[in-house]
Amino acid sequence: MDSDRRGQWLRGVLDLCVLALLRDGESYGYQLAQSLDAVGVGPIQGGTLYPVLLRLQRTGLVTARWREGDSGPARKYYQLTDDGRAALRHGGNAWLAFVAPVTSIVTKGVDG
Amino acid sequence: MNRLVTVAEMTLRELARRRGVILLLLLMPLTFWLIRRDSYVGQSVRALLLGISWAVSTAALFATSAARELEPRLRLAGYRPHHLYIGRMLGLWALGLAIAVPFFLLTVVDANNLRYGGIAVAMLCCVAVAAPFGMLIGALLPRELEGTLLLLTVVAMQMLLDPADAGAKLTPFWSSREIATWAVDHTDDGYLTRGFLHGMVVTVLLIVTVAGVFAVRLRRRRHLHHVPIA
Amino acid sequence: MNTDDWLRAFAAELYQRRVGRDAARHVVAEAATHLREGGGDPWLVFGSPQAYAAAIVESIGTAPGPRPGPVRLHARGITKRYGRQVVLRDASLTVRAGQIAAVVGANGCGKSTFLRICAGLVSPDAGEVTVSGRLGYCPQQGGTADFLLPDEHFVLVGAAQGVPRGPARRAGRAAARDLGWDAESAVLARHLSGGTRQKLNLTMSTLTQPDVLLLDEPYQGFDQGSYVNLWDQLTRLRDEGRAIVVVTHLLNQLDRVDLVLDLTPAHQGGRS
């Protein structure tokens, strides 16, 4: 039940996570997946991540270009656009406004 | 112009590759010549001219039959009917000249006391008439065999009819026979003029008929409306 | 199924779902890069090729293949009798730019006749056909010159549009390659196998860049690979905005066509 529920949460917030990660500079799919795993969000499969990236690209929140990496093959690097920055601010605030009461309620429940 | 030349060229290429057929076609005038050679030069010249007419018209018949399925789609591809039949005719005339030249040289080398200019004109008449004649038969008769038999009949009739006979003038290759008489028997110039005129008229008539047949066969059908894309 | 097989299947799925060629290439390349860097079983990382392709289509919008354009072929009320026998009764078909229509039906139900009427090679007893733009027609057989080389066919067809020899030859060979045929060899058409000659036939009909392409069972003598190439080629032409009509008695490709006209008697008229 845990991974199932986590998956549902992720679906709602993965785009925000990706936008947030791209705030500090461009990145590519595999690196983004590793970063998400490293901060503890958990393993994200390509089949989940890339459709999100493509949707962000299509709506103009990120741009992408193919570039040779320092080592290894050419990768598709994503950058945040101004629209993406605005969407991150907006969506991030909305998320925080959402999770704060949720956390407070759930905390009471868990503690009690 | 380019379209005409391309059709003519492809006609020539196709025929040039039918080596077996071409050799057999050349065999006929040659044997005609050789068989009659010892007896009377006039006979052998006439037979030679008929042989050339036969060879060129049969080649025209084959070329036309072979293109029967191809032509409608070339029409769709953007050729007009006259590109197709005039182009093919040009190719056949070129082939006819290529066939006639060596035979003309044969008469020059092998026979004396001829009006060689007359022989040349007679051969030109043969070639001029034979190409559209063979094409017409090829266009009207659906199969090569039937066309070949019809051609054979015409050539045989031409050989057997008395040229002085009024009906003989209705045969397509009468011109060459008349001119040959002038060239061989040194008759008066009337033979040359009559023959030449006959050759011209028959050629023009055949071209017009071929044009008509092709225009009908490759016509734009009434039920089909073409609209350009805006 | 190893990684390469998975990627191939995925690419085919994207193509089937009419994802744009460039977009599909990028998505496949990105998946390949990801798998190379992270390793792992593509079935676990991305799921099945079908499911992932569906997810991609959902992300980058509905299939970006061109929507059907203006009407290119409009045949209405086509009736044809041979003697007393009515071969076609009031058959109608409308095909737009970017559509493939299949004409199906039992043997002898007038499929080829219908196509020949659309091509203007046969007159109907009633009915009219309107064609917008250039018309291309590929007969069931014949239509090639026995004693010419493939290159000479291309030159002959090209000259109809004033295309010079060099470009006509190149265009013909390129179109032949799309059907998996190397047309450079100097073999007369009469020495080509049935299937290869049919490829020549087909190449000739696409060479003039027709807006409306009429094909009469164009796959006679094809092996399985050529058959697949043919349908890929037709899909490509469709996506370029051509209107295509294929006469066929094979029904297993009908999922790849946009319209079906069934000429079987008592069941006439188009349905989509």
Automatic annotation (TrEMBL), chain A:
It holds the Pfam family PadR. It comes from the Bacteria. InterPro entries: Metal_resp_DNA-bind_regulator, Tscrpt_reg_PadR_N, WH-like_DNA-bd_sf, WH_DNA-bd_sf. Residues 18-89 form the Transcription regulator PadR N-terminal domain. Signal peptide: none annotated. SUPFAM superfamilies: Winged helix' DNA-binding domain (SSF46785). This is Transcriptional regulator. It comes from Micromonospora andamanensis.
Automatic annotation (TrEMBL), chain B:
Residues 49-153 form the ABC-2 type transporter transmembrane domain. Keywords: Membrane, Transmembrane, Transmembrane helix. Its main location: membrane. The chain crosses the membrane at residues 20-35, 47-65, 85-109, 116-141, 196-216. It is a multi-pass membrane protein. Signal peptide: none annotated. Pfam families: ABC2_membrane_3. It is found in: Membrane. The keyword Transmembrane helix applies. This is ABC-2 type transporter transmembrane domain-containing protein. It comes from Micromonospora andamanensis.
TrEMBL record, chain C:
CDD domains: ABC_DR_subfamily_A (cd03230). It comes from Micromonospora andamanensis. This is ABC transporter domain-containing protein. PROSITE patterns: ABC_TRANSPORTER_2 (PS50893). It comes from the Bacteria. Residues 73-272 form the ABC transporter domain. Coiled coil: none annotated. Keywords: ATP-binding, Nucleotide-binding.
